[in-house]
Design a protein that fits this description.
This protein is α/β, with parallel strands linked by helices. The chain is built from ten helices and ten strands. It has helices at residues 44-51, 74-80, 95-99, 101-105, 112-121, 138-150, 168-185, 196-202, 220-225, 229-235, and strands spanning 3-13, 19-29, 33-37, 62-64, 67-68, 81-84, 156-160, 188-192, 205-210, 213-218. The strands form two sheets. The protein has a six-stranded mixed beta sheet, with helices on both faces. The longest helix has 18 residues, at 168-185.
Length: 239
């Protein structure tokens, strides 16, 4: 199995000399879902932001398909590595205008057929294209934001707790959509989650961060079902 991302001793210190990440090293397998868990303040969201240079990592610490991401233009990197946040950032206008936004930045005009196909990929009907974006529910907004990301034809998705504000039904829809995208498109997914139950449902690999450092890497069964002491402490809120 090939690796989509390789991290090698990634450390990040903020301008106020607060260290967020400490010599983080691991590989992200291509075409799989890797979940990142850990207590609040452990560096999970910062780690995701380093993968598409919302936070600038030091050179030679983050590689995409073996290439140092600091040598890739930011626009190209963010096209190849899409990101979905906790709250969907939906723009004023219609759903279609939201989905077409990214390609339009590079001069590409999506057809109505292409927009309908993107909506179908995120399990929304084509007639959503004409819907005002301001009328969407939370779950619908997240799936439209995902369709907008997919319009750029990414190779990887970074998900920063995208279902934490959703009800169980909407969470299920988002999870099923991510599964379909992984299976149909071969997308690599890095998913920050605070919900142990969700990680058990979706993860192929789990990474536990504590105080900005990797405490453990393994399968969900290893970390979540075998009584691993660090995971038990995280689940109980003691980390």
């Amino acid at each position: 199995m090939s690796d989509k991302f390789q991290l090698a001793n990634l450390s990040l210190v903020l301008p106020n000399n607060v260290q967020i990440l400490q010599r983080v090293s691991f590989n992200i397998p291509a075409g799989k879902i890797t979940c990142v868990i850990g207590p609040s303040g452990s560096g999970k969201s910062t780690l995701l932001r380093c993968l598409n240079r919302l936070w600038e990592p030091p050179p030679t610490t983050v590689f995409l398909d073996g290439v140092d991401i600091t040598t890739i233009s930011v626009l190209e990197l963010r096209r190849r590595v899409g990101m979905l946040f906790q709250s969907a950032a939906i723009f004023p206008g219609t759903v279609a205008e939201n989905i077409a936004y990214g390609p339009a930045l590079t001069g590409q005009i999506l057809t109505s057929t292409e927009i309908d196909a993107l909506l179908e990929r995120v399990s929304l009907p084509g007639d959503f294209a004409r819907k005002p974006a301001g009328e969407l529910s939370g779950g619908q907004a997240q799936r439209v934001a995902l369709a907008r990301t997919l319009a750029n034809k990414p190779e990887a998705l970074l998900l920063d707790e995208p279902t934490s504000a959703l009800d169980p039904a909407a969470t299920h829809h988002v999870e099923e959509t991510i599964f379909k995208l992984r299976d149909r498109l071969g997308l690599t997914v890095i998913w920050v989650s605070h919900a142990i139950e969700q990680v058990q449902r979706v993860a192929d690999q789990v990474i536990l961060l504590v105080d900005g450092a990797v405490a453990e890497i393994g399968s969900p069964a290893h970390l979540l079902e075998s009584g691993h002491h660090l995971t038990e402490e995280f689940a109980a809120g003691r980390l």
